[in-house]
Amino acid sequence: MAYSEKVLDHYENPRNVGSFENNENVGTGMVGAPACGDVMKLQIKVSDEGIIEDAVFKTYGCGSAIASSSLLTEWVKGKTLDEAQAIKNTHIAEELALPPVKIHCSVLAEDAINAAIADYREKH
Amino acid sequence: MIKVSEQQTAINVVEKPIYLDYSATTPMDERVVTEMLKYMGPETSFGNPASRSHSFGWAAEAAVEAARKHVADLVGANPKEIIFTSGATESDNLAIKGAAHFNKKRGKHIITCKTEHKAVLDSCRQLEREGYEVTYLDPLENGLLDLKVLEDAIREDTTVVSIMHVNNEIGVIQDIEAIGNLCRERKIIFHVDAAQSAGKVEMNLNELPVDLMSFSAHKIYGPKGIGALYVQRKPRVRLEAQMHGGGHERGMRSGTLATHQIVGMGEAFRIAKAEMVAENKRLLILRNKLYDGVKDMEEVYVNGDINQRIAGNINISFNYVEGESLLMALKELAISSGSACTSASLEPSYVLRALGRNDELAHSSIRFTMGRYTTEEEIDRTVAHVRTAVEKLRELSPLWDMYKDGIDLASIEWAAH
User: Fold this and answer.
1) N or C: which end of chain A has fewer CB within 10 A?
2) What pTM value is reported for the model?
């Protein structure tokens, strides 16, 4: 299948790949399932003012799943938790021009940021 | 202005990936193309083989019969037992539905295996809709069929057993002689899909207890759109035709014979017979080189029996790496994956699942199939590409991290989506 240029760009040069040491400033979201062929781990580092200072990801999945999570880490940086939570899968799908069979990748990315935020909030 | 053909060539030179998808299809051998051209243009023997009133027809008929002999010779059959069809899919349909329909008074039970090609499985599904019962056998973990399992599934009303010779995904070779003997003792019709085995595995239908066998031309350097069905004459196997018309091919498959396609198939089968032994030897060296080049990496698994398989196939799961992203990373290679992230169902390869492979391994599988034009240098490059890509994607994989941390993935409660 053909991928959009943006998907290819994120896939070839994924932004913000990595992991944070799990401490109280970090929220971690892991969503998906190996059986489904997609697992995303998204982590956010949140400042005392409630701003997402940094974000990293690791993803097992297709190119679109990798691109969705890579894009998301770029977008959430500098945002408040509420702003980050307002990012919807449709924004990601649109930005990456995902075909209908890949929409679930963007849904997974939305789930990942929400899970990371929920994890952070639970600690505070 | 550049001519289209030149433009095409320029593109091919820059971007042409290494083709390792010979089980999907093969290019036509140049010798095949040359033969086919003799039956196409106005100055050639383009006639209808059924035309009895002039030399155009006679020449075409002679060419078809010569091709029929080449096809028969490769598999040890009598030319009269070869029926030309549009391909292995049509042959499978004709064999399974044709035999089931013809024998419906004897019984309406069919047996096949879960790892069969969709042409077989979907023909069986159609029979189920018509009121037949079908048993889909589970293969062993190595992809081979347990004869005991087959024996236990046979019933009084079983009329047809359909088992493929070589599996298209994992390349394993079934023991069709043993399966055929089981069937013959019970007067059950045995159909074999040999699309992936003709020209790759030696066989002699004269002695094999096989009643029906499907062939394809384009899997062994012949043209697409042509295939054949072997229909045994002694004892005679009878089928209900699916295609009605002028009574061609002894009434089993009507329709004007596609002379140039048939000639192409004949030439491809002729070459296969002449070169199979040497080709298998060469392919085995290439396949071993590819596998040896990656097997020292961690968490690499071969799918299907490593010994009882055709020389040109190796199907490998690179655990913790998703197949489709691996294909993307390996854009220099033309290969296929058992992952089906593109399908809405997200179902990985049904063949690998039938072997009992877990979903992760099924999603992580890559099929490499080598053929006549694969070179050693291409395999060297393939090994290098694969190693780099797998390492890169494992760096990105949270599952790889968990594996490295000693976490058992099965112990985690994943939210299926």
Assistant:
1) C
2) 0.91
pLDDT in tens, B132-157: 999 999 999 999 999 999 999 999 99
User: What is the DSSP annotation of B340-405?
Assistant: -TTSTT----HHHHHTT--HHHHHTEEEEE--TT--HHHHHHHHHHHHHHHHHHHHH-HHHHHHHT
Hey, are the CB atoms on B325 and A14 less than 8 Å from each other? no
Mean pLDDT of A86-114: 93
Sign of CA dihedral B16, B17, B18, B23: negative
Burial of A69 (0-12, 13-18, 19+ CB in 10 A): buried
* A75 lies within 8 A of chain B by CB: no
Joined together, the tokens standing for residue B260 give: 């140039």
The per-residue pLDDT for range B5-47, each reduced to its tens digit, is 444 444 444 468 999 999 999 999 999 999 999 999 999 999 9
B10 contacts: CB under 8 Å, gap ≥ 6: B2
Q: Which of B363, B396, B409 sits opposite A17 (nearest CB)?
A: B396
Which pLDDT score is estimated for B146? 97
Measured between CB atoms, does A37 come within 8 Å of chain B?
yes
Q: What is residue B189's three-state secondary structure? A: strand
Strand partners, A59: A40
Segments in A1-124 forming alpha helices (H): 5-12, 63-76, 81-85, 89-96, 103-123
Gap from B416 CA to chain A (nearest CA, Å): 6
Under an 8 A CB cutoff, do A59 and B321 touch?
A: no
**Token digits of residue A32:** 């998906």
The DSSP line for B224-278 is: TT-EEEEE-TTTTP----SS-SS-TGGGTS-S---HHHHHHHHHHHHHHHHHHHH
A-chain residues within 8 Å CB-CB of B320?
60
| Contact (CB<8Å) A35/B320 | no
Residues 6+ away with beta carbon under 8 Å from B62: none
DSSP string for B4-52: HHHHHHHHHHHH--EE-BTTT--PPPHHHHHHHHTTTSTTS----TT--
Mean pLDDT of chain B: 93
Q: Is B307 helix (H, G, I), strand (E, B) or coil?
A: coil
Q: Is B416 within 8 Å of A36 when comparing Cβ atoms?
A: yes
> How high is the pLDDT of residue B359?
82
pLDDT surpassing 90 at residue B343: no
Answer yes or no: do B322 and A60 touch at CB < 8 A: yes
Q: In this structure, how many other beta carbons lie within 10 angstroms of the beta carbon of residue A83?
A: 14
* Active-site annotation holds for B341: yes
Nearest to A34 among B324, B342, B414 (CB): B414
Chain B residues whose CB is inside 8 A of the A62 CB are 322, 324-325, 328, 339, 341-342
pLDDT, position A109:
95
Q: Which residues pair with A42 in a beta bridge?
A: A29, A57
Q: Please check whether residue B148 touches A, CB under 8 A.
A: no
0.90 surpassed by complex ipTM: yes
